[in-house]
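Hi all, long-time lurker, first post. I run a small reading group and we've been trying to get comfortable going from sequence to structure in the token notation. Rather than ask abstract questions, I figured I'd post a concrete chain and ask someone more experienced to write out its structure so we can walk through it together at our next meeting. Sequence below, copied exactly:
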Amino acid sequence: MSPKVRRLVKLLARLPGVGEKTAQRYVLWLLTSEESLSRELGDELSRLRDELGPCERCGNVGEIHEGRALCDVCTDGKRDAKLLCVVARVHDLMAIERAGAMRGRYFVLGKLLSPLEGIGPEDLPLDRLVARIREDGVTEVIVATPPSVDGEATALLLKRELGPLGVAVSRIASGVPHGGDLEFADPITMGRALAGRQRL
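-- Answer (accepted) --
Happy to help. Here is the structure in token form:
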């Protein structure tokens, strides 16, 4: 294997979910596929950090214009600015957007409260979140952190911190996924599914 191929494989293998064999397959495929694809991909990657960045209002990925990054959600005038969904990561925001059920706006925390990892309340962007709520006149905050120990701890912290602002704080429901088998559900998931039951 040439040093150049080894270097490309090493770089691609640093991506999440990409091992050395997959990285090697990508490099060899790009070398043998249509030349315009590898050139276009290279051009886009070389400009990635100059053209995309975290949205200055919510933390989502936005295009940079005149030194400012704003995402499509924050610039969409049809969105309900009084409804704010708080998520841990951009991945979570994208998953909610795919469902097409959220017509409000978002705020990305970037991390979750995690004492084991040394992440305390002072490490979360709570001041920015409070400022955003006041600035937009938000009336409801939907907490959409994952149903994990850290996600639950973060949700409780948000409830405590945002309660005095007079906004309604709600939590997304969690339970057995559609199409899932009950026998494979863990006790916490099953407990939440029962607690969140609705009348038919």
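A couple of things your group might point at:
The two ends are 63 Å apart (CA to CA).
The mean pLDDT is 90.
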